[in-house]
Amino acid sequence: MRSGNPIPILRIKDTLLVTVEVDLHDRLAEAFQADMLATIERQGAAGLVIDISGLDIVDSYVARVLAETARMTSLMGAETVIVGMRPEVAATLVRMGYTMSGVRTALDVDAGLGLLSRGHGSSSA
Amino acid sequence: MDFMVALKLDERELSIRRAFVGLHDEDLQRLASLRPIAEKHTSEVIEDFYRVLLSQEETRAMFPDPATLERAKRAQYEYFMGLFAGRCDLDYAADRLRVGTTHERIGLAPKWYIGAYTRYLWFLHHRLHDEIPSPEEREAAFESVHKMVTFDMTLAIDTYIAAYLDSLDRHRAAIRELSTPVIAVHEGVLLLPLVGALDAKRSERVMEAVLLRVVEEQARVVILDIAGVPVVDTGVADHLLKTTAAVRLLGAQTVLTGISASVARTMVQLGVDVSTMHTKSRLADGIQLALSIVGKTIQEVAG
């Protein structure tokens, strides 16, 4: 539990895997983002998979945190994929006009890892 | 369907309906006191009534054989005497609704029902005129009959409307089901053939259906075929873009096919930007593209 982030960051070779199962709010979101960036800075990573299949509700704040985090980690050289978004979550985000453009997505962790190993993905939009 | 439920007919509703046509307990008592006169003339009134019904081609068609006619006359007798039973409770209303249901079933249009009722009242009026010498009593009697009949009519008309609304609902449900078929074309490839106008409500349902299926089928590509959509305006394009964005959030891609020359022209002239979607004119090309995305290809077999 480094820097107050309760979300574990797993490392599988040069890829990081993060499973978000708790509501990302305020301080937690900041701590999560900071911890992730620090990990990549310290240890480096070629890829990052953020699994959000455990989230029933993703509001615009959480969506922004996730999208921003993905852009930041990509900028640091870790190809980032957000995976496992639930259908109702996707529908709600799009209705709010939030499409997380520029962020790569995949159906599940497996597909996300596949995407990273192939080095090209479903998202150029 | 249960019309008592459809019309929300409970004690309260019944008393509201009765109060509105002015059907009071004294009217019911007066009707009950008219029962001997009614009984005496029932068959004549009914015979007169059916003579009218049989004189008209459209209404004659309701009674294709003598047995049906006899059954209808017997039901009519029950109905007629019911007016003079001196009661108007929920049982009475349920009984009257059954009449409406029968009309609906045999396809008796309201125009015949209301027209026939006017004739009916008129025959009754003549009999009351012959039987009741006092003008005041006669008027009071006719007024009570009229209120009772009007009460029945309000129920009958509402039955017609409720039956029509019910069939409309069932049709809507059928259309709803038909409007969002999501077909698995190949492993990881879904096809959604859109036929008919895409309004906001339908687009929402389409999007929800597609998203659910993408996750269920672990699909990587969804082909949206809009060949059957008559008009593609900015609204429709916006819905398609939203669906594409949502599908992308799940981790799948969208291929838009069925873009005709006129649709392409309209989209460009409207300034619709679909650069985030893969687009093809023909569905066949769309399927090929989708397959290539999941790493498959269609190959010709020699022979």
Description:
The complex is a heterodimer of chains A (125) and B (303). In chain A, 42% of the residues lie in helices and 18% in strands. Chain A is of the alpha/beta class and 125 residues long. Chain A has one domain (2-116): Transcription Regulator spoIIAA (2-Layer Sandwich). In chain A, strands 1-2-3-4-5 form a 5-stranded mixed β-sheet. Chain B has 303 residues and is an alpha/beta fold. Chain B folds into 2 domains: 3-175, Globins (Globin-like), CATH 1.10.490.10; 183-293, Transcription Regulator spoIIAA (2-Layer Sandwich), CATH 3.30.750. In chain B, 68% of the residues lie in helices and 9% in strands. Chain B contains 13 helices and 5 strands. Chain B has a 5-stranded mixed β-sheet with strand order 1-2-3-4-5, sandwiched between helices. In chain B, helix 3 packs across helix 9, helix 4 (35-55) crosses helix 8 (110-131) and helix 8 runs antiparallel to helix 9 (135-179). Chain B is elongated, with a radius of gyration of 32 Å. Chain B starts with a helix and ends in a 10-residue tail after the last helix. The relative contact order of chain B is 0.09. The mean pLDDT of chain B is 87. Chains A and B meet through helix 3 of A and helix 10 and helix 11 of B.
Strand content of chain B: 5-15%
CATH architecture of the largest domain in chain B: Orthogonal Bundle
Radius of gyration of chain B in whole Å, from Cα? 32 Å
Number of strands of chain B: 5
CATH superfamily of chain A: STAS domain
Order of helices and strands of chain A: EEHEHEHEH
